[in-house]
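#struct-help
A.M.: can someone run this one for me? Single chain, 196 residues.
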Amino acid sequence: MNLMLRMSYQERLAIYRESIERGSTELRFGTPVTRFLGIRAAALDGMLELLPLIREHYPSLPPEHKSRLSYLDILLMLELGAGGCDRESAARLTAQRFALADARRFRFSMEQDASFRSVFLRTAAFVCEPHPLGGEVNRGCGDAGGVLAAQREIQQATLADAARSGDDPATPVLPDPSHWLELLDNIVDSGLSGAR
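D.P.: on it. Structure tokens below:
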């Protein structure tokens, strides 16, 4: 799969299209690209133009593949990453678009929508992961950090409101069933040292 990341957008598009349509294809040197890998890679690259093929062929994936990447996750990844020229830029655009969301609506979606939460945390982890060759971090990590700061402000304001109204501080004020805020804190903290 690393070989594909070095290919042009058009070359990757052709490979993803063929793997999705035919069920699989091969890269140079015989490396297989299955339908699942093609769908996943197209979603990560924000290749919205492949949505009709994905819509047609996603139902034929085995259940174990569907459980690893839901159709709603794919739709969100395609929509938010659209316009990028590669995986790095698609992830950066996704992080920027998440950062532009209304902070309270964002929080509600993180708490109530598993696909939204999954795609955001995956994106944050990708953009905040130091590049294996240069150690730099994608600039989208700064956007994930902005989301984190806005969510911490909401949390502090909610706790302050609860204290003023006399609510029991031991009562959970902000439900956080997946502990996503702590996960995001760890992800961002590990990656904000640079930008690629």
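A.M.: thanks! The two ends are 21 Å apart (CA to CA).
D.P.: also worth noting: The CA atoms of residues 76 and 119 lie 7 Å apart.
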